[in-house]
Each structure stands twice: as structure tokens, then as C-alpha cells.
Design goal:
The chain is α+β, with helices and mostly antiparallel strands. It has five helices and 23 strands. The strands form five sheets. The chain has a six-stranded antiparallel sheet. It starts with a helix and ends with a strand. 1-hydroxynaphthalene-2-carboxylic acid (1HN) is lined by residues 62, 64, 66, 76, 85, 87, 139, 153, 155, 157. The site of 1-hydroxynaphthalene-2-carboxylic acid has 10 residues, from strand 2, strand 3 and strand 10.
Length: 329
């Protein structure tokens, strides 16, 4: 107990008695604060067509709808560190280049077409492709393909904003966009190549397959704050339950199925997006045919910080956590 006088002195001195404080720092394990949430493609596509018809290039520098998870009370956040967004670029349009301290990637839907330029390197947007725009690279978009293009952007906006490290710059005479050839790293991962490699990967014991998109220069994640995997799920066979301190955004590349995420069940099909909050059990099952999912996570960053842990349902002998596979080392 702390009597009123002491409480007053603590307050005046801007100190808190830890032994009376109940909060995340005294918890035995994380309690998920994020919420599982899904955005269905038919509705996103309808909204995309509406803004494509009604919002002009003059109204919006980028015609973007952020998938704002209601669990974050109006912030531009889909998970705790990432936001996903639908972007629409009409035939004949251009979105001028800019650069920012946030890293971004694009997942190209089958409403494909157009080109993303990254430091003036042209990256055609073909269905299933992954295109990177690493932090502080100049990026713009143009669409000469004669039809409206829609894709999903993923950025680390919530993370960078929480560190108050947001910088955005437009090109100027002092800082022109460098010519093509300036950026030599791999920026576009075509789905045809990825699928070939994924299909050739041996299956895990639950029948699922996974490959990681890597930065070819150092073998690490594609970007320090954003880590991406492609998964192939076998038809009608549930994946092993898993939970991790990483939070995940899932994009359904093809197929349909169901995922149990904590106490929610999502029925998904092509182009849907849903979230798996941190430290929340998840299992997926594809229906009728194999499905391909892209997972975007903050796992690599947590690993770097020594904070990545995961637990598999097969590990637990009872309700208590009996084994935790620590991925610190
Ligand atoms: C952004 O700069 C782009 O450059 C797309 O295409 C989506 C979402 C939030 C903040 C900045 C882009 C974005 C974004």
C-alpha cells in the first residue's frame, strides 16, 4: 500500500511504483492488442471502381484506400507496424514520383497493368508480382495499358510514424530522380519465377510449402522492416496451428479456403486481405484445390531485436506453454 501522502510525492516527482503497476511490462506473455480483420476483394474492387470513376487525379495525388483495421481507431494501420492499401490508376494516368522514409511494396492483383518506376527503373505490374520500393527510393506509377489497374500497397507507415521518423520528399532541382541504372538491386519478383520455386520446395509435415522472398545482396528479408513469404496450401488439409510475436498481413493470390485466427473464422478467396495479430493462434485450410497465399510480416525486424518467438500447436502438451521455440539465436 502507498498512502495518499506518498502517492502525492510520487506524482510530483513523476515516478510510478512498479510494484503496484499492472500492465504489459508485468504480463507473463503478450496479450494481443491487434484485431483480426478481413477485407473482401469484391467490395474492395467495387470501391476501387467507384474512386476510379469519381476521384480525379487533381483530387488525389495517389488514389489510395488504406485498409484501416477498426482495432486501431482511425489510424492508417492494418497491423501494428504495417498498412495495406488499394491503389487505383486509370488508363493513361501517371502518379508522379516521390520518396519517403517508409518502405513499401506492391502486390499486383489480376486487375493488373501499368508500371511502377523505382529510381527510374521500370517494373511492369503483372498479376502475382511483388515489387519493392525500399525506403527513400523514388517511386511513381504510370499506366499505358488501356485499362484501369488496381494493386495492393503495403507500407511500414505505422512503425515509422510511431518512431516519428516520417520524411517525404518531392523531386526538385537539387534532388532530381536519378536515371535508370542507379538502383541495381532486385526490385521485381515475378510470380512465374516464385511459383516455380515454391512448387519445387519440399512440403512441411502438414503438407504446406513456404518460401521466403529474399534480398539477393545479403540473403536477408526483402527490406529491414518488411518480411515476405509465399505459401502453397494443400487442398482440404488444415495447416498446423501456430502463433508468433510477429503480426502478419495475408494476401490471397489464388484459391479459396478458411482461416481460423484467434476466435474469428475468415472464408477467403482470390485477392482478399486479412490480418493475423501477434501472439494469436492461426490455422488455414484451402478448399477443393491448392491455394497460394502471400504473407507480409514484421518477423525479420523482431528477430533482429531478439523478440521473435513462435509456438506450434504440436509443441503444447496441455494448456500451459510447455515449449516455446525461441528464435533469438
Ligand atoms: C504511398 O506513398 C503510396 O507511393 C501508396 O504509391 C500508398 C499509403 C500510405 C502512405 C503513403 C505510393 C500509400 C503511400
Amino acid at each position: 500500500m502507498v498512502d495518499g501522502l506518498l502517492e502525492e510525492r510520487f506524482k510530483e516527482a513523476s515516478v510510478l511504483p512498479l510494484w503496484l503497476h499492472v500492465g504489459p511490462a508485468s504480463a507473463h506473455e503478450p496479450r494481443p492488442t491487434e484485431k483480426p480483420c478481413m477485407w473482401s476483394w469484391p467490395e474492395l474492387k467495387r470501391l476501387g471502381n467507384t474512386i476510379g470513376d469519381e476521384i480525379s487525379g487533381a483530387d488525389a495525388e495517389r488514389r489510395v484506400l488504406v485498409l484501416a483495421n477498426p482495432g486501431f481507431g482511425g489510424r492508417l494501420a492494418t497491423t501494428g507496424t504495417l498498412n495495406a492499401a488499394l491503389q487505383v490508376l486509370n488508363a493513361g494516368e501517371t502518379a508522379a514520383p516521390h520518396r519517403h522514409s517508409m518502405a513499401a511494396l506492391r502486390l499486383i492483383t489480376d486487375e493488373d497493368g501499368g508500371v511502377t518506376t523505382v529510381d527510374d527503373v521500370n517494373c511492369p505490374m503483372v498479376a502475382g508480382d511483388l515489387i519493392l520500393t525500399p525506403a527513400w527510393s523514388w517511386h511513381g506509377h504510370f499506366n499505358n495499358d488501356g485499362r484501369r489497374a488496381m494493386w495492393i500497397d503495403v507500407l511500414d507507415v505505422p512503425l515509422v510514424a510511431s518512431w516519428n521518423a516520417v520524411f517525404i520528399e518531392q523531386p526538385s532541382e537539387r534532388n532530381p530522380v536519378p536515371g535508370a541504372g542507379f538502383n541495381t538491386r532486385k526490385l521485381r519478383y515475378s510470380w512465374a519465377d516464385t511459383q516455380r520455386q515454391l512448387d519445387a520446395t519440399p512440403a512441411n509435415k502438414d503438407g504446406s510449402r513456404e518460401i521466403r522472398y529474399i534480398n539477393l545482396e545479403d540473403g536477408g528479408p526483402v527490406m529491414p522492416t518488411i518480411d515476405v513469404y509465399a505459401n502453397r496450401l494443400p487442398a482440404d488439409r488444415a495447416t498446423e496451428g501456430v502463433r508468433s510475436t510477429a503480426s502478419t498481413l495475408v494476401y490471397v493470390l489464388s484459391g479459396s479456403g478458411t482461416s481460423t485466427v484467434g476466435d474469428k473464422e475468415f472464408s477467403w478467396s482470390k485477392n482478399d486481405v486479412f490480418t493475423i495479430p501477434n501472439w494469436t493462434w492461426v490455422s488455414h485450410v484451402a478448399r477443393d484445390q491448392d491455394a497460394y497465399l502471400i504473407k507480409v510480416t514484421n518477423g525479420a525486424m523482431l528477430k533482429t531485436l531478439g523478440l521473435l518467438r513462435s509456438e506450434h500447436s504440436g509443441d503444447a502438451k496441455n494448456d500451459q506453454i510447455t515449449t516455446i521455440k525461441s528464435e533469438r539465436h
